[in-house]
Amino acid sequence: MLSQEVFDYLKEVGCCTICCLRFLKVRGDEYMNVAKTLQRLGLKDTCSDAENGEESGPTSKKTKPNVCVACLGFFSDEFLAKLTEALTTHPHLIQYECDEFVLAISFPILLNVRQLSLWLALIDKFGQMHGFVSNKQPDVPLKEVSKMVISPKVSQALGKKYGQNGMMISISINHADETAELQKLTEVDQILFKTNCTNNKSKKDKKGTVNGMTRGYFEKNFLPSNIDVDIYKQNIPVPPAIPDSSMIVENIAVSGPTIFVAGRYQKFCRVLPHTPWILNGKRVMADSVQELIVQSVAPYFEVPESKVIFSSSGREDVDVRCLGKGRPFVLEIPDSKRIILPQSVAENMEIEIDQTEKIRVINLQIVPREELVHIKFGEEKKTKTYRALCILNEPATVEVLQKLNIPEGFEIKQWTPIRVLHRRPLLQRPRRVHSVKARVDPNDHKILILDIVTQAGTYIKELVHGDFNRTDPCFAKLIGQDIDIAALDVLAVDLDWPKDVNNRISGQCETVRDKNEIDDLNKS
Ligand SMILES: [Zn+2]
After folding, report:
1. Residue 206: what pLDDT?
2. CA distance 396 to 448
3. Cis peptide upstream of residue 417 (ω within 30 degrees of 0)
4. Which entry of 161, 372, 426, 490 is 20 to 30 Å from 104 by CA?
5. CATH assignment of the domain containing 265
6. Is 0.95 exceeded by the ipTM?
7. Same domain, 327 and 396
8. Where does a domain end: 224, 240, 255?
9. Contacts from 78-87 at CB under 8 Å and sequence distance 24+?
């Protein structure tokens, strides 16, 4: 039987059972139970089975198997034990309270050389008969098989599940012979290639690695069809020689997953910028909405505040409050040490933020990455509701009030306001004002309170006074007299996200200050 012949040959030259199966193109979960797979394929391991910890009979003597010529011992029990020990004792890994992980393993290029040598040997020995040809990879890639063999073992050792949203464990694996063997390869690099192939060699792939040999360069050029096989064989053993030592775990780097914490904030302060306000390298104001939130959230996830990215559904000016249900925001937290946010912790964060008395946060929660579309896209379709305190030169007439009660709304054209030109491109944007409701302050008839519903992205201050005709029409134009804006509040951001969660479980909810009162607007 042909498979048995190939299997026997691979065993004879020093492959481990898993690598034999790789070169027999066995795929997927067949590697979960190697003994069963051998049985299913009708393969008999006539050499020692000691490497799998099985003994073929009570009389057989367990001999120490050689280090596999193909995987350099990567799939051996000894190496797996070394790897799991390195992982379980890793000083950083234990910092992560994260029940899922993803593995990224980087292998030495030496494995590619080994594969090529075996490839050439198999072509020599079996050729077309068993599908070993010079233009088709001879094996199932080590990376693919390692997922089936290594990941379950790591999972067991760490007590964590394999999952795409988990922490990333990057393992660099190396071998003592890597440098020397690649050096040998580099030496023959110039004479190895058939003349018609030399032009195809991409020199730019070669920079900055061991002896100028990169995996990309190797995989692209070192193919049986490209090289002069005789010269290769004179310099590199075919089949590959049995190595003296096994792979070593060179480095393990761990990074946490990126998690997203969303919520809504209300802003009560008229001297608080959205993000740190720094002018010519100097801070203009001590705090910002961003910093007040991040400083209470980042420590729990053990991430430096500077690494956290804050974004929100729009923003308000430094002197504008944001009331009502507040404005949705999300924090992107990279390399997080934790992936869950218990409600009691969220509550403490919210209470701590309350104590700043400048902002208030509700509905703090972890959200999946997919939900960020709510905050990042469709901004122009959203509507915002504002309350503006405006001042006239003369007491408001009935006519003025009538002109500023516009339930049907209207269209405007708005050039980028002069005050933001330094940070926004000069553009004229069409915007929809959905409705305007006006009433007069009973204590001072020069003061108007306007409730304005607009398309997101409308500049409200300019909608009131016109910004030197750069916003057209504006309220001043509609009423035919000067009108200025004294204070502005955001009353509603029409994004119903993230979902409501009541974190104030311990009842430490302060009484909600009704910040929407006109009096209050007037005073502040
Ligand atoms: Zn192997």
Report:
1. 46
2. 8
3. no
4. 372
5. 3.30.70.2510
6. yes
7. no
8. 255
9. 78/246, 79/246, 79/247, 80/150, 80/153, 82/248, 82/249, 83/150, 83/153, 83/154, 83/171, 83/249, 84/153, 84/154, 84/157, 86/249, 86/252, 87/154, 87/157, 87/158, 87/169, 87/252
pLDDT of residue 51: 47
Are 395 and 445 contained in the same domain?
A: yes
Measured CA to CA in angstroms, residue 364 lies from 64, 138, 351, 433, 480 at distances of 57, 53, 11, 31, 46
The span from the CA of 465 to the CA of 482, in Å, is 7
Pairwise CA distance, residues 499 & 502, whole Å: 10
Are 416 and 369 in a shared domain? no
225 CA to centre of ligand 1 in angstroms: 25
Of the three residues 226, 255, 284, the one that is the final residue of a domain is 255
State the total domains in the chain: 3
Among 8, 77, 99, 317, the active-site one is 317
Residue 3 pLDDT: 87
Q: Using the structure block, give the residue that is written with the tokens 């110039």.
A: 190
Residue 53's nearest CA partner among 43, 65, 41, 44 is 65
Cα(74) to ligand 1 centroid in Å equals 6
Average the pLDDT over each of 41-50, 152-161, 341-350, 450-459 and give the range with the smallest value. 41-50
Q: Which domain holds residue 100?
A: 67-255
Q: Which residues contact 339 (CB under 8 A, 6 or more apart)?
A: 97, 98, 99, 100, 165, 166, 256, 257, 259, 366
* Residue from 218, 260, 521, 254 nearest 376 by CA: 260
Residue with tokens 């799939």: 75
Identity of the amino acid at 418: I
C-alpha–C-alpha distance, residues 463 and 484, integer Å? 10
393 and 312 within one domain: no
Report the C-alpha gap between 488 and 268 in whole angstroms.
11
CATH number at residue 419: 3.30.70.3190
What are residue 99's phi and psi, to 5 degrees?
A: -95, 10
Q: What's the gap in Å between 155 CA and the centre of ligand 1?
A: 21
Please state at what angle helix 289-297 crosses helix 343-354, rounded to 10 degrees: 140
- Ligand 1 centroid to residue 14 C-alpha, Å: 8
The verdict on residue 174 lying in a domain is yes
Where do the H-state alpha helices sit in 410-484?
A: 460-465, 475-479
In a domain, 509, yes or no: no
317 is catalytic: yes
Average pLDDT across the chain, whole number: 87
CA of 106 to the centre of ligand 1 (A): 16
Q: Report CA(249)–ligand 1 centroid distance (Å).
A: 16
In angstroms, what is the span from residue 8 Cα to ligand 1's centroid? 14
Structure tokens, 460: 């409200």
Mean pLDDT confidence for 467-479:
96
Which DSSP letter does residue 170 get? E
- Compute, in angstroms, the gap from residue 127 CA to the centroid of ligand 1: 22
Amino acid at 380: E
Q: 414-433, pLDDT tens digit by residue?
A: 999 999 998 889 999 999 99
